[in-house]
Batch of 3 targets.
Target 1
Amino acid sequence: MKAIKIKFNLIILVLALIAGITACEKDVILDLADIEGKYVIVEANLIDDGSRQWIRLTRSSSYYDVNTGNAEQNAFVIVQGNNQSWDFTELHPDSLPGYYFNSHISSALTETTYELMIETADNQTFFAQSEFRPVPVLDSVTVKLNPFSELNFFDTAVYDVIAHFADLPGDGDHYLFNLYINNKLRTLRPTDKEPMSDVNLDEYSSYAVLNLNENDIAPGDTLTLEMRSISKENFDFYGVFFFQTDLSGNPFAGAPPANIPTNLSEGGRGFFQVSSVNRKMIIFQPPQ
């Protein structure tokens, strides 16, 4: 989804490779500790749209293992806040292993701090907190041809998806954007999503938040832009994730590799976020 950013980084990388084409090459084999099953990985992004919410638990896999870590089953998962508590339970052992569901918390979310508590079958316990904050109203969504696409910089047409909204009063708010086409999420990977800080936003913003390739959408398709409130810590999580994955091969990426941030205690990995959500839908027509 971040076609411009990725293309720019690839150009920089190619130039760097050309500049160093006469340099010596040496194979490097990393002696990495086997972390198979060592860490519990938590994916917990709860929203207030009234739908059934889920939390996913898995175990870490080896660095060289291309498969997803094993599901963490038979855990006790609970979320508390505003003097209420909600149990998240598995549907049954063989259905979506590692997923824990609750159908009531979404409609009850309000502006307060929520705590996630997890106890695994082997008696490990993990805790995390997240503050539920409001999100601006998306007044409208428009699509226009990306300026680089106008210059034939890309092989196919690339469109900018532009969000129009009034920022909330004061500074310190952070947002996350997702894109759906015909109700199917297209920003699946963390690096497909677009985190945003309001530090440099105007009182009213028209901001190109995501890119869209012409091969991914057709005239008449339904395009839905989703805007979520997130914490500063979650904003940093997505930023570091991008640098550790999409820019990992770029010699100009900046800081050396580091652990991706987490708000889980006791050595847990992943993130717990409770968000307010706002969506705006349009029928796509290629811009002229």
Target 2
Amino acid sequence: MDALIKEFINYLAVERGLADNTLLAYQRDLKKYAACLRKMGVKDAKNVKRDQITQFMYGQKKQGLSTNSICRNLAAIKMFHRFLVRERLAQEDPTNLVDTPKLWKRVPEVLTSGEIEAMIEAAKGQGWQAVRDKAILELFYASGMRVSELLNLKTENVNLELGYVRCIGKGRKERIIPIGKRARDALQKYCASVRGKLVKDDMTFSLFVSRLGKKISRQSIWKIIKSYARKARIKKEIKPHTLRHSFATHLLERGADLRSVQEMLGHSDISTTQIYTHVDRERLKTVHKQFHPRG
């Protein structure tokens, strides 16, 4: 089973071009699945039955996993078994009749424009860290990129003269995202006065680097966001995608069309982008309740 999982992950990397984080998630989920099957006495993927997959999912639910996590696990399992059938490593796909649990689309938490401004303002200063952090926050909000996309940016991906960034997203898909004057100014200042002093190796092409001159980590970016949210006295629960959610919501609130926002976010399916229209409706309901005489 482990050898087949390894072969499947290689296929996803080479043929499908999935991102490293996605590959690691699939590998982790499938290893849990294989371990559970071994406990049931199943050692060969060709012998897996529908009931055993259902039993695995039920076990996940008993362990307290969210519906989202169970759905992600099942998606990995379905892809794995389809791969085995396609490669003629198995004759039947036992997941054909396994239903995916129903998912409620949750409205993501977003920050107001004022909260975004306060957060970025909290990063003001002339020290190298403040200059770098402000550039990160400005670009994050101006582009709506994922955290992984932001930390993987190279200097060559940014065109300050024309005002855009070239982003490599999920599935190695490339997209061009325009950025505004504030983000351009913050990046210009960072590149001109800070980055060169931090980088110690001419072979380091990452746009954002740590104090050691290496590519900044996901954890560091996350700490930066949390730190300035705290300084701005924001009480809301901040998550990795909060600035991305805010970017999309604020664009739609101001009249941007859904297709353009979809393209900037890098969503392959417009239904994923439509969740942000729900956010706007929720905001309108709150305003109505607060100000209408019979709210």
Target 3
Amino acid sequence: MKQILELQKQAAPHGLKLHLDGARIWNAHIATGIALNELANSFDTISVCFSKGLGAPVGSAIISTSERIEEARIWRKRYGGGMRQIGLLAAAAAYAVENNISRLGNDHKMAKEIAIACAQIDSSIINPDEVETNIVALNLAKFNISASELSQELKIEGILTGALGPKFLRLVTHLDISQADMDKVLTILPPLLKRSLVAK
């Protein structure tokens, strides 16, 4: 919050507006305990996502003044972003907000478990204390395997991950991951890492 307030302070004299890409604001709220309105207070516009952590099939919304929303609708149409007959999607988004925010803590817990298991192989790969939400970012610099190679090996085992750099692998936990899925990750990932560890 301190950085956000400083950003707002620096932007205001220049007449700059602040936008919050709030796709993961729900996770930040659960992880920090800070109220949603407090997290959003410093911004002029906010976008929120109902899929990802909340599990709706699709959908985002923008929050701002009525004037800015009207302008955003014009630009949405110009960019081809309009949709018709979206009542079912709106219902799914409403369900997600009403029922799935409270369960995000479970996603965070699973991510922490994965981080701890990986750190036990080598502390350079990740610091579990820094895993606060549902994203696990693995640093493979000391490992004799690239992120894409490890991602492919995990995919063969039915575990989907994202290679976001030559030595950077990302795992994201979410509501579709069962305890059986977690057991699989914790059984398969650490041995793969151990096998490819390069002593320096």
